[in-house]
């Protein structure tokens, strides 16, 4: 009897699951709002049969991984910059900004679990601010540091992923 119930439950879930997945039109709508739709499509299509909440979770997890890897890169850049005080100061500042970004990733996660989609949007915006402050400087009068390392590329990928979180969280608010 338990086996029959399990089989019936599995069949039921197989029929229900696709109804919770977002339609391709909605993925298109989300990605067409992004700066790089092809990047967005590649990221979101790597999580098939997901709903908006699980896609948000997935993009938060992707952001966490990217921020963590960027922190590792920054630590390496600090170690390599012993003879360049300007570079070392820049990377130390970036390290603080990316630690702040990681905190905001965790906070975004917490708000998603609570169903606070407006809060998710605000916290994700804070991630972008942290990343942008590292790359562009904290003030419009700060000249951006000419960074030949991979840090700007890592940062741009994080910004693209966070942009998707922002777009999806706006969709969740509707």
Automatic annotation (TrEMBL):
Residues 22-168 form the Pectinesterase inhibitor domain. The keyword Metal-binding does not apply. Keywords: Disulfide bond, Signal. Residues 1-21 form the signal peptide. One of its GO terms (molecular function) is pectinesterase inhibitor activity. CDD domains: PMEI. Transmembrane segments: none annotated. InterPro entries: Invertase/methylesterase_inhib, PCW_Enzyme_Inhibitor, Pectinesterase_inhib_dom, PMEI_plant. Belongs to the PMEI family. This is Pectinesterase inhibitor domain-containing protein.
